[in-house]
Structure formats: structure tokens, C-alpha cells
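Review form for a predicted model. The reviewer records the input and the model, then writes brief findings.
Reviewer: anonymous (R2)
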Amino acid sequence: MDVGFTVSEALVAAPNVALGSAPLGLVSATRNVYLFRRTLDGSERESLQTLTLSATDLAGNLTTETSLTLTTDFTAPTPVNGSVSPSPTHDGQVVTVTFDTPESLAGNPTVLFGGLTAAFDGLSGSTYTFQRTLDGTETEGVTTVAIDTVDPAGNTGNLSLPITLDFTAPALSALSVTPATGRSGTSMTIQFTVSESLAGDPTIIGGQPATRASQTGLAYAYTRTLDGTETEGTATVEIQVQDPAGHVTTDTSLAVSVRVPENGRRTAGERPENGRRTAGERPENGRRTAGERPENGRRTAGGTGAR
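Model under review:
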């Protein structure tokens, strides 16, 4: 800090200059022009302070000047209440950074995503907003949003916020469905493995819902018991997964064959499940078994009629 001034006449000695109670040192005196300096070390009182200049001429007259003031500020303008959203996120997304500053700044802060600039979006009171549209040039993974601030006194502040950038969609592998053919009552199991943690349960579509049976790490198993509401024929098993960054992957490589009788009746000549015929049912070759009566109660030739 430099203080320079000119006096109107010769002095008996160099003037005295002080910032509050902290003295300044004389740097130069050229005729009646003086320059004083003090390097602030933080021991000075932090506030608006008065500079006191005292000078005595050769006749002993004393003049004191207190019209100069100086505001001392030793506090860094460290940002607070910082947030980054969304996170995790992916390329193409607009990421918003907000934070508050404890005092007015000398200019807009600098906000960098792993060294790449975010744009100033607005200031409301002491709250700053910056944005960046991710373009894929950023480093994938956990990276740092660095915020740097400077106040009018030249103090600097900074804040680092983490953000997770994910530019890779989840992949599906080891897909299987067993059995591949079923009818009403058949329990089918769908298994697959994903390449990363997911935002929630995978969706098994295929026209009907399935129930998660197990999860071991990144390996999932789902089951569905066919109940006759499925459409008969070949059905696609559609598996849809979403990672925390919002990438969605859909797989339709699996298919099952569904066989469901339309009305539950047997076709012509079909035996019931226990192999027995119902009452009055003719055998397959049309012949009656031993002792069986004909439908009209009459016996065939050589037989004895009904009494």
C-alpha cells in the first residue's frame, strides 16, 4: 500500500503517516513530495480505516490530515452452498452449477469442468449460476468442477465440486431364457448380466410383466409363469435397462414359443390326461369292450335281448 502527498513548505522532519495505529515507512522524499509504503500483513484491523498524516513546519506549526480512508479486507471470498446437477449425467445434457459468495466480487467467477469452461448464466443476490452443455470432450468418470473467485481487495477463493460424467450406455450380456417353449403353467426364467450399476430394476416387457427372482452383483434373473393370457406363438422378450446417467439400452434378441389351447378342449380323438374315456365314449376302433351294451339296448345277432 503506497501513500503519496505534497507539502507546501519545508518541514523540520519527515511527516508521520499511519493506518490506524500501524505506521507506514518513508520510501522517498524529493523536495516537498513524499512517498510512504506499508506491506499489509494481516495484523491491521479489518475494516474501513483512516490514514493519519502529521507534518510540522520549521516554525513549529503542526498539521494533521485525516481525509484519506482505506478499507482493509483479509478474508477470502470462498464460495458456499455449491451444487452441481444433474450428476451422474451424460453427453448432451445441460449441467447447472450454483453457489453463493459471502461478498461482492471484482468480476464474474471462473467455473471449469475438468479444465473446460462453463458459461455465466445469472446472478441473483449473492447466488451465481453457471451452465455447460456436455459435448463428450470432458473426461468420463468422476471429475471436478472448479470455482475461483476474486474480491475487490484481491483476495481469492475457491470451491471444488465433484460430478460424475458417463458417456457409455449399459451393455447386456449372457442373455438366456429357459425353457424356450412353454404352455399355461410353465415357469420361464430370463437371465442376463449388465455392464454397470443401474438406476433401478430392469424392465422385462415382452407384452407381459416378469418378476425379479434374484440379483447377484450385475447378474439378474426374472421369472414369469405363463397363465394363458399370453398370445400363442413366438413372443419377443424385451429387456430395457437404464444407468444412473440416463442412458437406456433395449435388447430384443430373446424369444419364447408360447403354446396355449384356445378354449381348453381336446381336439378330435385326443385322450384325457388319465387315458380313460368318458361315459358313452366309443373306443378309437369303434368296437365295444366285453359286456358293453349297445346304445339302443339291443344285442347283436346271437345275443340275448333285454328282458
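Findings: The first strand starts at residue 2 and ends at 6.
Further findings: The mean pLDDT is 85.
Recommendation: see findings above.
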